[in-house]
Amino acid sequence: MVSLKDAAVKPLSDLSTHDSPQLRWRSLEVLKRIGPAAQGGVPACLKALEDKEWYVRREAVRDEQVVARFRDRVTNDEEWTVRKEAFDALRSWGAEGKLEVKPY
């Protein structure tokens, strides 16, 4: 039996490439709220790092796997709020800023 959370990951991932930046942003926000069950949404977050809208990129950086994989990229984003989110995530992991990177 597929859970509601599992069933939501694919449609939410699809919405992350919608023409509307608000839908892209909100879909990433919901994927993050689903938590570990949304592991299939990590590729959507990675793609969102290239979004032209800073608030979509900021939401993508709220996924710890995105920060773990692309630390240099996200800590050097042109938008200060994206960089702040990335540094906050790194700080939350401790002085080493290490997190196990999981395959997706």
Description:
This protein is mainly α and 104 residues long. The protein has one domain (4-92): Leucine-rich Repeat Variant (Alpha Horseshoe), CATH 1.25.10. Helices cover 62% and strands 0% of the residues. It is built from seven helices and no strands. It is globular.
CATH class: Mainly Alpha
Please provide the count of β strands: 0
Q: How many domain modules?
A: 1
Unreliable stretches, pLDDT < 50, 5 or more residues? Answer: none
Percentage of β-strand residues: under 5%
By DSSP (H or I, 4+ residues per run), the number of helices equals 7
Quickly give the CATH architecture: Alpha Horseshoe
Question: What helical percentage do the residues reach?
Answer: 55-70%
Return Rg in Å. 13 Å
Keywords for this entry:
104 residues, mainly alpha, Leucine-rich Repeat Variant, 62% helix
Secondary structure elements and their pairing?
Layout: H1 4-15, H2 21-34, H3 42-48, H4 54-61, H5 64-69, H6 71-74, H7 80-92
Briefly characterize the structure.
The protein is mostly helical and 104 residues long. It has helices at 4-15, 21-34, 42-48, 54-61, 64-69, 71-74, 80-92. The relative contact order is 0.14.
